[in-house]
Design brief:
CATH architecture of the largest domain: Alpha-Beta Complex
Radius of gyration: 23 Å
Oligomer: single chain
Helix content: 25-40%
Strand order of the largest sheet: 4-3-2-1-5-6
CATH topology of the largest domain: Creatine Amidinohydrolase
Distance between the termini: 54 Å
Structural class: alpha+beta
Length: 391
């Protein structure tokens, strides 16, 4: 745990403290930020209060009194609920306290604390404040080691497309039947051979399946890929290392010699939206201008709307990337949520606009890392410039 850095961030934010709480593992953010085992089994409520100055305090139940012993601070052991509430009141009464809470549930990934606890703290005269910005600072900002691990993952995910598309081209050349699941299995074999891990198999979609942003290959839907079709592959993986972070990329390919003009036109619009976001990020950091996730979503959405396809862009423009493929920093989102978190140096996010029509869908995804000096890096190879062909 970075106690001094956390306390400095609290003072800069004008907060009196940060109350990190967990019940039966419902707050993995608290566990990660405190450096606890995220798989540790607990059955009772525990709290860890970090004041803006001074020594932290622990509140733990008598039968699990050692759960926070690895952390600094005074231990307060409770047995009865009245003792728990009394300890919380002593620590938080009349203070501005950061919590894993999001007003109006604006950022669901941060909303880990139940409404009843918020009500309890308010009854003490405490002012709950969302910890969203603090979580991003201490959970989403990468270390130099994580940046290097990401570059390794990015190299392999880039290569995985060549492996997958090469496999598909060879099977088509031979006239051998090839299904979406066959390509998916080839990607997973490549990941296993290079010691990469992923939380879910990649998306491999052909034809109308490409129009479903979250298409999943199932036995009843596993389609045969034939010449003259659009194929979309969305894959993500990370190095098998405790601190590793993901690379998450999407590309499309046409299984023939000539891409239909309509497919190429939609791709070009999507690519313009993607590149407009990258340009906006670079401009903002060059000018040292704060930029928020919702603003970048608006950039991509405007390009697609101006081209007449705004109603067919069905999801946010991008998400934070970290140890989870959908990380806990700012998302590029002003559609599903209004994400007011700033893009911070040391964080990574996807840029993946898409247009989804009835007969096909196009998405182009790259990863953007803003380093600690504000330099913007695109990882995982060059952004796709046109629909590739397997003719």
């Amino acid at each position: 745990m970075q106690l001094e850095a956390i306390q400095q961030a609290l003072r800069q934010a004008g907060l009196d403290g940060w109350l990190l709480a967990d019940f039966r593992g419902n707050n993995p953010l608290a566990r990660r930020i405190l450096g606890l085992d995220t798989q540790l089994t607990t059955t009772r409520r525990w709290y860890y209060f970090v004041p803006a100055q001074g020594l932290p305090s622990k509140i733990v139940h008598r039968i699990e009194s050692a759960v926070l012993d690895t952390l600094p601070g005074e231990k307060r052991v409770y047995l009865r609920w009245q003792e728990l509430e009394s300890a919380l009141q002593q620590l938080t009464a009349g203070k501005r306290v950061a919590l894993e809470y999001s007003p109006r549930n604006a950022i669901p990934s941060v909303s880990r604390l139940d409404a009843g606890t918020v009500e309890l703290l308010r009854s003490f005269g405490a002012e709950p404040v969302s910890s969203a910005d603090l979580v991003q600072q201490f959970e989403a900002v990468w270390s130099p080691t994580q940046w290097q691990l990401h570059l390794q993952a990015a190299q392999h995910t880039d290569e995985a497309f060549r492996v997958a598309f090469g496999f598909l081209a060879e099977r088509l050349r031979q006239g051998s039947p090839v299904r979406e699941s066959d390509v998916q299995a080839e990607i997973l074999r490549y990941f296993a051979d290079h010691d990469l891990v992923t939380d879910h198999p990649p998306i491999v979609a052909v034809g109308r399946h490409t129009a479903d942003p979250h298409y999943t290959v199932k036995p009843e839907s596993d389609a045969v890929i034939m010449p003259g079709q659009l194929v979309l592959v969305d894959l993500w993986a990370k190095v098998n290392h405790p601190d590793a972070v993901y690379s998450d990329l999407t590309r499309v390919v046409w299984t023939g010699e000539s891409v239909p003009p309509r497919v190429q036109e939609i791709f070009r619009i999507v690519a313009r939206a993607r590149d407009a976001v990258i340009a906006r990020v670079r401009d903002a950091f060059a000018r040292r201008e704060p930029i928020c996730g919702w603003q970048l979503d608006d950039v991509a959405r405007q390009v697609i709307a101006d081209a007449g396809w705004g109603d067919y862009f069905l999801h946010r423009t991008g998400h934070n990337i970290g140890r989870d493929v959908h990380g806990n920093g700012a998302n590029l989102d002003n559609l599903e949520t209004h994400d007011v978190r700033r893009i911070l140096p040391g964080t990574c996010f996807s840029v993946e606009p898409g247009i989804y029509l009835e007969e096909f869908g196009i998405r182009s995804e790259v990863n953007v890392f803003v380093d600690w000096q504000g330099q913007v890096h695109i990882t995982g190879g060059e952004p796709q410039r046109q629909v590739a062909t397997l003719g």
